[in-house]
Structure formats: C-alpha cells, structure tokens
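Exercise (ungraded).
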Amino acid sequence: MSDSSPRKIIAVLGGTGKEGRGLAYRWAKAGHQILIGSRTPEKAQGAAADLTGLLGGKAAIRGTSNSEAARRADIVVLTVPYAAHRATLESVSSDLAGKILVDVTVPLVPPKVAKVQMPPAGSAAQEAREILGEGVQVTSAFQNISHEHLLGNEAIECDVLVTGTSKEARAETLGLVRDAGLVGWDAGPIENSVVVEGMTSILIGINREYGGSRAGIRITGIG
Amino acid sequence: MSDSSPRKIIAVLGGTGKEGRGLAYRWAKAGHQILIGSRTPEKAQGAAADLTGLLGGKAAIRGTSNSEAARRADIVVLTVPYAAHRATLESVSSDLAGKILVDVTVPLVPPKVAKVQMPPAGSAAQEAREILGEGVQVTSAFQNISHEHLLGNEAIECDVLVTGTSKEARAETLGLVRDAGLVGWDAGPIENSVVVEGMTSILIGINREYGGSRAGIRITGIG
C-alpha cells in the first residue's frame, strides 16, 4: 500500500455486476476494505467470496445490503444499471450524509445505446445530485472503462475523467482511480459529467463501426 | 493529392480567425480550393494573401463575403465564435441548400469556459440544425484541436471526433479531417456533438489544472 491512498472502507453498490466486481477487485488488491452491496445480500456475499478467491484469500471483502454497505463505508461507489439508479439512490440517501458518492452510471437508453440521450437533470450524476441534496458530495468517474479490463492485471489503455461537486471530492476520487491502477484527470464541475457519460455512447459506436470491443480515450499533450 | 479527397471548393466562414486560418492553410496545402469568408471581405482578402504567402504562392485561396463563399463552395465550414453563430448561419442559410455545413463552433459561456454550458438545442451543432432545417446536412468536428497546432507542420496529437446528421456527411467530413493531416473517427449522430463540444471545456480545465496549453484526446484500443 505504499503508493496507495490510506486504507478506506469502500462500498460498491450494485457490486455484483461486472463493473462493480472489477472495481472491487482492484481496490481490494490495493489494500482497501470492500463492502459489496446488493438488493439481495446473498448475491453480494457470493460475489465477495468469488473475489476473495480470485485474490488468493488475502482480501477484506464482505457482501451485504446496499443500505448497510453505504452506512458503514467511508466512500460509496454506485455501479447499478441506469434503470435502478434513482431507486437505489433513494434507498441509501440517509446513509450518505457527509460522504462522497462516486457515480459510475451511464444513462444508456436502449436500443439506441450509441446515441447520447441524457435525463432532464443533464446527466446521471447531476440527477444523483438532485436526489441526494447538498449534504452529499457527488463525483462521477469510470464510465468509459470496459469491465472486461478490470478483472485482468494488464495495463488499461483508457484514462478516467473525474468530475464532481467539489475539488476535494474530485481529489479523493482521483486517489481511488490511482489505486485501481488507472490514470485519472480532474475534469471539472459535475456539470461536465455529460461529456464523460456521453463518451460511453460514442465509444460503443466506435467499437461497432471499426470492429472492436475495447475503444477508450487518452488525454494527450500534458507533461 | 494522391492520398487526398478529390479537389473541392471549401468555404471557411469566419476564416480570418485563428482556427479558420489554420484549417484553410492545411486544406490549401492538400490541394483544395479555399474561399475565406468574413463579414468584412477586405479582412478575408488579407487573410487569403497571408496564407498564400505562407504556402509560397502556390495555393488557391481567395477572400470574400461569408455569403459569396458559402454560395460558391461545395462544402462549408463554420469557424466563428459562438456569439456570432446564429447570425452567421441565418445570413448564409439560403446559400447552403443541398450542401454540408461543418460546424466547428464551441458554445463557451465566459467567464466559466471550463464548465460545460450548452444552448437549449443541446449543442451548437444541434442549434445549427434547427436554424438550417432538413435541407442541409450538418456535421460537427475539429472542436478539440488547438489552433496553435494547425499552422505548424508537426503531427498533431489530438484525434477528431465527427458527428453529423447522416453517415454520408460524416464520411465526407472525415475526408477533410484526413486532408488536414489529422486522425478522425465517426462519432455518430449529431446529438453526440454535445460530448465533443463539451470536451473542449474539459480540455481547457485540464490545461489550467495541469499547467499546459495543448491538452487533447486520442481514441485507443482499436486496431
């Protein structure tokens, strides 16, 4: 953990899905304590057991309800499909006071998932902000990372753009990006999340058009 | 011109500005015929003379009014500041029937230019679509390329995402991207332009935050 953030308790809500599992795996490997949350705690316990096995038994990962995971964590990461976004946030809202909610959600509208279609709030992250109110810092990150990459150990050729409601919350989230083995960038206020969420639709379209599955983005020209 | 698109007449409206001059320079170098448009034709003629000089006299570049440039061109590129976007489009609308309008405009709202703030239409390109109606194909491109790069000859470390109202119009615009010496990607329907226009604000913020002037993006993971 010498290069990692101080050890934290990280809740991954919707952590039984592929994106959530991948992030939980990487953060557990970096030494953080992980609480996988699910509407069905038994599924969360199953995912926790799987990931602990993948890590050779040397990981602090537990499965529980979304609400308990949110209540006991230092920082809470939301990785549910967009259809469950509002209901999950409303169910844990009271557990988030004073914490940071890292929203990974992309508001895809099937069947046209390669077309940018944002909710009335402007983006999923701004919708989270509306639901949670001023007492919770909301950041937005990891939307462009293909879950196929996260459970491997190879370098990931995609940067992470972090937007959020305060510079401090973005800095904290950038620590989690580093601990996941990724390159992150402070991409400004939460209003900018429309760009990052929408980029996922463009990358889906590029994968289709150019015959790939791993399109990503890199920031160039700095340093 | 062996690798370039067939020789075209390209109008660059607002072509006396830095972005417009840079694009005109690169397309003239690739062998296209350029009409620089301006509200003040004398200024356009001055810019045309400057660029012809830069190219050693061997270029087909003329300066004229925006309206004449639009009327005589095969394809029309709009590079005005956002404050002049609507008025310029309205003034050339009747000259654009059956053509492609390539919108380079970024709807920055000073002083918070690092915060994404889109017009009610959703993006500048969608606003152009509303103003011009169904008889004009609108594409959107080049918003993330710093003008400092275009007048040089070195490779530019920033890809161009092209959105637009039809696949054919995007393909045509991708030809112009190649002719400018840049790597382009079909980024889908015109609704996706919010991502590309908004990315400019994120890149401005990254330049400020990380101390640079040339932040760009690359698409990775394909091929």
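Further reading is listed at the end of the chapter. For now, observe: The longest helix of chain A spans residues 193-210. Helices of chain A lie at 18-29, 41-54, 66-72, 85-92, 124-132, 147-150, 167-179, 193-210.
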